[in-house]
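dumping this here before i forget
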Amino acid sequence: MKQLKQYTLIDFFCGAGGFTEGFRQMGFQTLYGYDSWLPATQTYNHNYQLNCGTKDVSVFLNSIEEINNVPDSTVILGSPPCVSFSTSNKSGRGEKGLGLKLIKSFLRVIAVKKHQSNSILEGWFMENVTNSKKYLQVYYTFKDLNLSDWAISIGKNPEDEALRVNPNTFVINSADYGSHQARKRSISGEIISKGKFIVPSSTHINTGVKQEQWKTLGELIVKLPIPILKSAVGIVRDPIYPSIKIKMDDLTDHFYDSGLYECEWRQSRELKVNHHCMGKMAFPENMENPSRTVTATKSSTSREALIYKSDYNRTGDGEFRSPTIREIACIMGFPITYQFTGNQYAKWRQVGNAVCPCVSRALAKEFLIQNNYPVPTELNLEKEVRLEGILNLNTFIETVFTNPPKRTRDSKFRRHPIKDGNLTVTLSNFDIKEKNKPDGRWMTSIQYGTGINFRHQVIEDNFYKSLEEIIKKELPEGLQFLKIINNGFSEKVANSRLMQKMYESQKSVGNKEEPTYLIDDLKGIINRISAENEFYHQSKDFKIFKYKDKIPLSQILALYGVNKIVSIANQSD
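structure:
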């Protein structure tokens, strides 16, 4: 076993410092962190007691002098911004050029630090979203990295391999290393003494008995105080690092009301459980599994939004909530002593962009093992709370919900009550196939499939009348369905202009219902009618659904209800 020495690191695109934190816990000393975003740099400086300035890492793309100014270190870390590679960015069609430029800047630094005379670099690691791997080269020559002249100056051929990257890139799930979050990320790297990246052995597993089970979201949340406390008295123990105990009054960014307006959580719920082309997700979050990925954008209305049941006994507004900043920080694996600068949205972005410390800790430990260096028996943790310059989000106040968010003018509307496979009957205020802007009229349409060339059928207004006899004949409860729709439900339908206005304001007016509520009501009515697993076989003489012969009766009911809404709205305008 080699003697203990001081291992050092530099962190590029350091953000809030999640990559650094795992290495610090394994005894590494942080020399410097580079980031262009001031709140992240301030957070990094606060937690590592440094004085780093903001810096655009792209400056290293064309300047050897800038690279030479970077301190030499044992390890180099980097997390180039992932937005241009993310599958959620423009449906996976994000601009890749910027991401590749920043990766190249980072790899240039590593190449110089690895191949310079008297190099002390012993390892490097790069984190990105899983989709980035397909854009990485098998290896990069000095010429590829615009280092031809520099390579010649140190006696190397510009065509020589400087770094091997793609074969040294693996997808790692943070849940396999003890995180309360199932977060998959691409990790590239090299332990230079071995000439390759060695993936750390997982410590937790989804199934099996030889390793610990994945840690669940519920196991974490229950160990934190509930956010609705009116005051913080006593001691709180870190749910991940039990050796850390602090005064509850020092637990920042947790005791505030993160409740959501009903219109917000209802939109998220619809996208999760009834999306027109994607699978079903849990709403609210499933506490029996690891958390889904914490994203960099704080959202309350998206499919990706993390939403919990509120601890307040409320219905409608505030019934569900977003996680607190402290909760998502713990989900990521930050100690409760770790502080984040800026407002709520800046803090959320810093946490969501970070590398999980449990993953970086596993990388650091594997680095020590492979180099035959001593592995610390205890984690190096910051156990004191330092709050100077920190904006604490704690308010201990329950929110009064009086001002729901409004949609932009002429917002598009698309909802369907029932989804059978990829078959939907849709209410919209625009032509889904043409993707045009709303023109003041509402539409009934049927979608067959979800691909680029999905089949699409527009249904004319007042078509619902031709379905009445079929509904009466095919369903014992058909007459009851028609009575409900035509006596009570129909009265809730406004004219087309008011429908749009209510949708944009996310409020019903008088006895008229905002269209998302109309679709929810229609779904409830259909579900109360016993039509499950019953089908209507269309005749050749009267084909309602053009591209299917066997139709779920629930979709016949959906078509009737949606077309009734459209017909009333358009005719009463």
